[in-house]
Amino acid sequence: MDALGQLAVVLGLMLATVLLVGVGERIRRPYPVLVLLLGVVLALVPGIPMISIEPDLILPLFLPPLIFAAAQRTSWGMLWAKRRTVLWMAGALVLVTVAAVAWTAWLVIPGVTVAAAVALGALTAPPDPVAAEAVAEPLKLPRRLVTTLQTEGLCNDATALVVYGGAVAAMASGSYSLPTAVLNFLYEAVVAVLLGIGVGLLAKRLRDGIAELTARSGLTLVVPFATYLAADAIAASGVLAVLAAGLTMGRSGFDDLGVSDRLYGGAFWDTLELLITGLAFGLIGLELREVIDTGGADLGSALLICLTVVVVRFVWMMFAGPIARRVSDQDQASASWREDLVLGFCGMRGLATLALALALPLATPARGDLLLAAFAVIVVTLVLPGLTLPTLVAALGVRAEADALEAATKPLAIRAGHAALARLEELERTEDVPDEIVGRLRGRQRMLLAALGDEPPDDEFADYKRQLEQRGELMRKVRRIDTEMVEAARREILTARREPGVDPQAADQVLHRLDLHSAGAL
Q1: What is the dihedral of CA 359, 363, 365, 367, to 10 degrees?
Q2: Which comes out higher in pLDDT, residue 438 or 152?
Q3: Residue 357 and residue 123 in contact, taking contact as beta carbons nearer than 8 Å
Q4: How far apart, in whole angstroms, are the C-alpha atoms of residue 152 and residue 240?
Q5: 401 with 336: CB under 8 angstroms?
Q6: C-alpha atoms less than 13 angstroms from C-alpha of 251 in its C-beta half-sphere
Q7: First CA to last CA across the chain, in angstroms?
């Protein structure tokens, strides 16, 4: 297929992603599942051009920005608080899954070697963090479940990639050394984290020296790719390096630039993540054609391997969850058997499984059957939970038990309110602030705290509330009139922009200022 044909497919998948996001919201189903199904349908249609990407480029192209975006939604403190979850889900569960899948593959796939079976176990072991979040987000699951899925997804690739690398090396050399594998894992993890922290600190300094917001956002796009490639060059874990860089950069900044980064940079990354995720899962569906062309025909074996992956996760969650709750009241991945069951459903495989399967050497014994098994695992673990999990969550009542985000937001809002009042008192002592202004600001802040339940309202607050309501009615009228005035100004500039002799760039500058005014930023 020529380059233009491939570009048309890429643009088509991006457009389909945007449209299917809306469809997914209406039917309460995750859009990655819908895009994957669309890719599968397209793969079965004769004449539809396929995207040809080198297997070794799939992870470097798609994984860095997705890991970096996910890292922006967590913190070092959260990872430390979830350290037990990292050990027993992103570590132990991955290894148990590798062993179970390898043993099953060795039994049911004719001609497969132990090393090839271990490679299959490694590439099917790690759940995909993007898919898990996309499935969990519209369900309003308890925050502990969401953070558990985030933590597991961000850290499990490192364990699986080390096992996969050792298995591929064993296929080439004919031997495997467990001590060497352990040392490799320690090297890849430690060096990757140090590298990621270093890159993150350097990137923060560079970002602080750039005033232009567009360039600052561009820097955050370059960082994950550069970090991944640097880690790969020194044989460290690119996934952990990007994770460490994203956590180090974080959501920081107290001045105007920090606010701008969070507002506009956040919108930039939300859009980018949506398009890359849709393209990645569309690509997964399209790869069905290559799986068919490769010649894997042992569908029964593939389904047995799918069953192994699913059963291992369910058994692990249903048994390890209660044990973890008895061992410690802190860092609980789940609070009941119902939540254990939901976590068992959330083991979606995705991009890493596809990339590692396609990267298997051409000389791998029974490679076609291994590709078919990997693709089947992706479809079964992603499509079935994506379509059935909302019904299961409703039936179990997990959503009703959810410690909603508001519960975590309220104490933070109260802390922010008290900090604002403390700063007002400092300014009152050090600056000449009129009493009327101080009283008004203190009243507004204390009213907010009262609304949050931190302070009981009294008669003074009741009078102040009535004044606010009266003033609010006046301000709503002012805002309505102001909106109509700005709209008239905007129409005039749009008309002028089409006139001969008017500089479009100058008109765009005025439009931008009017838009900022409408958004309350000017």
Answers
A1: 40
A2: 152
A3: yes
A4: 12
A5: yes
A6: 15
A7: 50
Residue type, 472: G
Distance of alpha carbon 336 from alpha carbon 411, whole angstroms? 25
Q: What is the pTM of this model?
A: 0.77
Between CA 302 and CA 372 the distance in angstroms is 6
Residue 492 sits at the vertex; the CA angle it makes with 491 and 497, to the nearest 5 degrees, is 95
Tokens 């004769």 map to which residue? Answer: 46
Token code pair at residue 355: 């990339």
Task: Tell which residue, 117, 74, 138, 152, has the closest CA to residue 344.
Answer: 152
Q: Which residue has the tokens 């997990």?
A: 398
What's the longest Cα–Cα distance across the chain? 86
Q: At residue 145, what is the residue type?
A: L
**Over the Cα atoms of the chain, what is R_g?**
27
Q: Which residue has the tokens 């069905």?
A: 288
Alpha carbon distance 172, 466 (integer Å): 79
CA 181/CA 278 separation, integer angstroms:
35
DSSP reduced 3-state for 183:
helix
Q: From 307, 294, 314, 347, select the one nearest 107 (Cα to Cα).
A: 307
- 455 token code pair: 């302070």
- Cα separation, 316 vs 314, in Å, equals 5
| SS3 of residue 453 by DSSP | coil
For 219-243, letters b (16+ CB in 10 Å) and e give bbbebbbbbbebbbeeebbbbbbbb
pLDDT in tens, 185-231: 888 889 999 999 999 999 988 988 887 878 888 888 999 999 999 99
- d(CA 263, CA 261) in angstroms, rounded, equals 6
Are 227 and 195 in contact by the 8 Å Cβ rule? The answer is yes
Here the tokens at position 242 are 């990007």
What are the tokens at 448? 């907010």
Span of 36-50, 355-369, 415-429 with lowest mean pLDDT: 415-429
Q: 264-284: per-residue pLDDT in tens?
A: 777 888 888 889 888 888 888
Q: Tokens 């302070």 sit at which residue?
A: 455
- Distance, in Å, from the CA atom of 16 to the CA atom of 279, rounded to the nearest integer, reads 9
Mean pLDDT within 158-184: 80
Place of tokens 């009129």: 434
**To 10 degrees, what angle do helices 213-233 and 178-208 make?**
160
CA distance 511 to 417: 35
